[in-house]
Specification:
The mean pLDDT is 96. Helix 4 (159-172) packs across helix 5. Helix 9 (287-290) links the parallel strand 15 (266-274) and strand 16. This protein is α/β, with parallel strands linked by helices. It has helices spanning 39-46, 108-111, 153-156, 159-172, 187-198, 211-219, 233-240, 256-265, 287-290, 304-315, 334-344, 358-364, and strands spanning 3-8, 11-15, 28-36, 67-68, 72-80, 95-98, 101-102, 122-123, 136-139, 144-146, 180-183, 204-207, 224-226, 246-251, 266-274, 295-298, 325-330, 351-355. It starts with a strand and ends with a helix. It is 28% helix and 24% strand. One of its GO terms (molecular function) is zinc ion binding.
């Protein structure tokens, strides 16, 4: 079996003679079709943060580097374990998206239903347990979400980042027709714009410097595009809102300017939702929160229900994310045309999908 293995920063190796994973009696085996390269994958490529270092295995997977990458996964079921309940309503040949979160089921957050807050949480494709950038993966049946016929396998690989966005918008508690601000319109920011529109939110102000991303933000429904290198975003927001500010802002950039702008752009008692993963500590003027009773909300990944909501919205046409896909590449080109392209040609790409199966590869070329 082929798999892209992570040994350390800038040390990715495409191995071609690995054994296929064996499907356990309570597992489902999937032939991977498309896998998106995520911003987290790029962070790990540059500097190892979440992937367990060699000799320090993850508490759930019991694995450490090298691990197989890829957690934005679509594919086709090829085997179902003998003890998988018929209530799962799964069958060989089903096209699916994969919920990649690893969780212990026993800690207080897990028992309360907040799997994303598990004290030992991890991810397929980052923490061991297999990954999407391989020919096959075996997962628990509850991690498998069937795709309706109307949803392609390409779009199926976008369910995971869209679920991040759906969860963030849900956490914001934004009301119908309320305006908002999205700082950073990479894949997650663009997904948030789409989810805001799907949930009936009002005008959206997008903050972005890259022209291609500005264009897509507008296509997906942003009513105003602000370049922070050209304007004082907070001043413009105040002008647009009659001096009041916005009820909700989303930080998808994770840079000092984004935390300042999102905090100062919301109204008194407004909500700032942080979706970004920060690479280093940042100075934060807490009085910007305290003096106006603003709320700063940390938001991490998703719950199982978010995957269901996203697939429903895709099926009904409320989400149409296809134009986020800027490139489809074979696994053999994943480093040069995937990781390196996303890091060095940011102005060209949003979401790069890696095609795995032979059928998929034929459809790509």
């Amino acid at each position: 079996m082929r798999a892209l293995r992570y040994y350390g920063p800038k040390d990715l190796r495409l191995e071609t003679d690995l054994p296929e994973p064996k499907c356990g009696s309570r597992q489902v085996k999937i032939q991977n079709a498309f896998v998106g390269i995520c911003g987290t994958d790029l962070h790990e490529y540059h500097s190892q943060t979440f992937i367990p270092k060699h000799g320090a295995p993850h508490p759930l997977s019991k694995e450490s580097a090298p691990v197989t990458l890829g957690h934005e996964i679509s594919g086709t079921i090829v085997e179902i374990g003998s003890d998988v309940s018929s209530s799962a309503e799964l069958k060989v040949g089903d096209r699916v998206a994969v919920f990649p979160l690893l969780y212990c089921r026993t800690c207080e957050p897990c028992k309360s239903g907040f799997l994303n807050c598990c004290v030992d949480k991890g991810f397929l494709g980052l923490s061991g347990g297999g990954g999407g950038l391989s020919d096959y993966i075996c997962v628990q049946p509850e991690a498998v979400f069937k795709l309706p016929d109307s949803i392609s396998l390409e779009v199926g690989a976008l369910v995971e980042p869209l679920a991040v966005a759906w969860h963030a918008v849900s956490q914001s508690a934004i009301s119908a027709s309320q305006p908002s601000l999205v700082f950073g319109t990479g894949p997650i920011g663009l997904s948030i714009i789409q989810c805001l529109k799907a949930m009936g939110a009002g005008d959206i102000i997008a903050v972005e410097t890259v022209p291609r991303r500005q264009q897509l933000a507008k296509e997906f429904g942003a009513s105003h595009i602000l370049d922070p290198a050209q304007v004082n975003v907070t001043d413009v927001v105040r002008e647009l809102t009659g001096g009041n500010g916005l009820p909700v802002a989303f930080d998808c950039a994770g840079v000092p300017l984004s935390v300042e702008v999102t905090t100062r752009s919301v109204c008194a008692r407004g909500v700032i939702v942080n979706v970004a993963i920060w690479e280093k500590p940042v100075n934060f003027a807490l009085n910007d929160l305290v003096l106006y009773e603003r709320k700063y909300v940390g938001c991490l990944t998703y719950l199982l229900v978010d995957f269901g909501h996203v697939i429903h919205a895709l099926r009904t046409g409320h989400l149409k994310p296809e134009s986020m896909i800027t490139s489809k590449i074979p696994l053999e080109r994943v480093i040069e045309d995937g990781f390196e392209a996303l890091m060095n040609r940011k102005e060209e790409h949003i979401k790069v999908l890696v095609g795995l199966s032979a059928t998929v590869l034929k459809s790509m070329f």
